[in-house]
Specification:
CATH superfamily: Regulatory factor, effector binding domain
Strand content: 35-45%
Number of strands: 7
Largest sheet: 7 strands, antiparallel
Order of helices and strands: EEHEEEHEHE
Number of helices: 3
Number of domains: 1
CATH topology: Multidrug-efflux Transporter 1 Regulator Bmrr, Chain A
Distance between the termini: 15 Å
Helix content: 10-25%
CATH architecture: Alpha-Beta Barrel
Shape: globular
């Protein structure tokens, strides 16, 4: 376990969008962050289904890349449902991004990889057997899911 690092993204990226996900690098691991920089953004939801994810990602990612704060090979997007109507997203960055909500995250996170439809997320969170916060890392967008055929999601439980 290396402080503030997550597995490197795969070079296998036939879509030009989401790289192919390697579950063995993530499943059953512990990651530790100490003041790891993230940009926090939000989406509106309808019963936990994000409504404006594409807009949030496009706008936020544009600001991150403009600031040269993107980590090209060690990216993670951690999502947490605040309510059925709103979701918080933490996008890892290498430095603060002007005009964005910048936060630093500290904690140890145990992981478990799941594969299946997005609507199974409540079951996945429950299976983590914790009362602590559980973030979800959706590794593939819906377009890339159609290409790769697998929908891997990493649950990261604060320990």
């Amino acid at each position: 376990m290396t402080l503030n690092h997550v597995p490197k993204l795969s070079k296998d990226n036939e879509t030009g969008c989401c790289p192919r996900f390697n579950s063995k690098d993530w499943d059953g691991k512990t990651f530790e962050f100490k003041n790891k920089p993230f940009v926090r953004a939000y989406t509106h939801s309808f019963f936990y289904m994000p409504l404006d994810m594409n807009k949030m990602m496009t706008n936020t990612w544009a600001e991150i890349t403009k600031a040269k704060a993107d980590s090209k090979d060690e990216f993670i997007l951690m999502s947490y449902d605040l309510s059925p109507w709103k979701c918080e997203h933490l996008l890892s960055v290498t430095k603060e991004v002007k005009g964005q909500e910048n936060i630093k995250l500290t904690g140890k996170f145990k992981t478990k990889v799941f594969e299946g439809p997005f609507q199974d997320a409540p079951k996945w969170i429950k299976s983590m057997n914790t009362t602590n916060k559980v973030y979800l890392y959706y590794t593939t967008c819906p377009k890339c899911l159609k290409v790769y055929g697998k929908n891997y999601v990493v649950a990261l439980a604060l320990v």
